[in-house]
Amino acid sequence: MKFCVSQKTSSWLKPTVAAACLLSSLAAMPMLNATATQAEARSLIPTLNGQKSGSTCLQTQVETPVLQAQTRQFKVNDSSSLPKAIRQKVLAIASKELRIPVNQLKITAERSRFWDGCLGVASPKAMCPMIGIPGWQVIVAGPQEYWVYHLNKTATLIKRNPTTSAKGSVVPTFWQADSTMVAAKPGEIIFQSSTTGGIAGQAYKTLLQKDGQVVRIDLRQQPPTPTLIRRLSPPQVQEFVRFLQQNEFEDFLDFNYSPTAGADYFAIALMTPRGNGIQYVDIVQDQTPLKLQQIIQAWNRITKVN
Fold first, then answer.
1. Confidence class of residue 53 from pLDDT cuts 50, 70 and 90?
2. In this predicted model, what pLDDT tens digit does every residue of 132-165 receive, in sequence order?
3. With 50 as the cut, is the pLDDT of residue 198 above it?
4. CA distances from 235 to 11, 33, 116, 189, 238 (A)
5. What's the mean per-residue pLDDT of the chain?
6. Which of the two residues, 269 and 11, has the higher pLDDT score?
7. Which of 3, 102, 205, 293 registers the highest number of CB atoms within 10 A of its CB?
8. Confidence at residue 273, expressed as pLDDT on a 0 to 100 scale
9. Which residues contact 67 (CB under 8 A, 6 or more apart)?
10. Angle, to 10 degrees, between the axis of helix 15-27 and the axis of helix 234-246?
């Protein structure tokens, strides 16, 4: 039997520290070139809460800085719907756990999944057996808040995912990116996004390449023409990968955060090179879970056009 160590057991930074370190470093990106050393990158992080952050941000190496979907959750089991008895059981468990009357809760989204031995929700220092437990992922909505539950097929095992659960009126749904989201050369890409919408009907992709180049491609042009936005140093690329891991980006894969109504907005998808990712609308990004907000802010800083 194979085991994987939970990401929460590794020496990555606490989320608040990671966010401050990353954003401070990215704010100084014009001062770095592609050959910057870790010491040079570290020197651009002046203070955190009045104290020098030292080498904390860059203490861990990433040997292959290409983001891959993690294996805490596996392929969709099948397309069948959640049985009525399981729905009632989940609501009853949620009601007891959250201390909210069951008549104030409802299941808004569901999908079948294969989970690891931790049901995709790893506790500190957990060793998760890679055994492929068939089950479900369920979103339960209440008054101005929602919770994401992971359970096995019969709901005898159930865990709430605190990373993807959040307060707010925008309750996520499940979403599947189409094949156009797959990078043309996935091995050369670390992270990417797709942006559409706005008054002018914009449509473009932004890529963070393995060599540190941040490139934007206007999809309205024929043929599409790439534009170099900036270049990250190797330490900054490694730091961004660690930041995504620390903020559990893979937990948000295939989630969609969109308002029920709205006028002019941008729809943004944040994706791995293989085309799986999350989608949100810019006008509601402050209503997404905290860790996702931190990822969005970091990516916006990286891809900002000066």
1. very low
2. 999 999 999 998 899 999 999 999 999 999 999 9
3. yes
4. 17, 11, 32, 16, 5
5. 77
6. 269
7. 205
8. 87
9. 190, 191, 241, 244, 249, 272, 273
10. 150
Domain positions in the chain: 84-170
Alpha carbon 231 to chain centroid, angstroms: 22
Q: What are the distances in angstroms from CA 106 to CA 26, 50, 94, 103, 138?
A: 41, 45, 10, 8, 10
Say how far apart CA 112 and CA 77 lie, in whole Å: 5
The angle formed by the CA atoms of residues 27, 254 and 268, to the nearest 5 degrees, is 45
* Residues contacting residue 292 through CB under 8 Å, at least 6 positions apart: 247, 252, 257, 278, 280
Q: Report pLDDT digits (tens) over 260-269.
A: 655 678 899 9
Rg (CA), the chain: 20
- Strand-strand pairing, 255-257 and 266-271: unpaired
The angle that helices 290-303 and 15-27 make with each other, rounded to 10 degrees, is 10
Label residue 271 exposed, middle or buried (CB < 10 Å: 0-12, 13-18, 19+).
buried
Asked if pLDDT for residue 62 goes beyond 80, the answer is: no
Name the more confident of 58 and 133.
Answer: 133
Nearest residue to 161 via CA among 143, 182, 139: 139
At 221 the pLDDT is 83
In this structure, what token pair is assigned to residue 161? 């995912």
* 113 sits in which H/E element: strand 106-115
Half-sphere exposure of 50 (CA within 13 A, CB side): 0
| Dihedral sign, Cα of residue 247, residue 147, residue 267, residue 283 | negative
Which residues have CB under 8 Å from 245's CB, separation 6+? 7, 10, 12
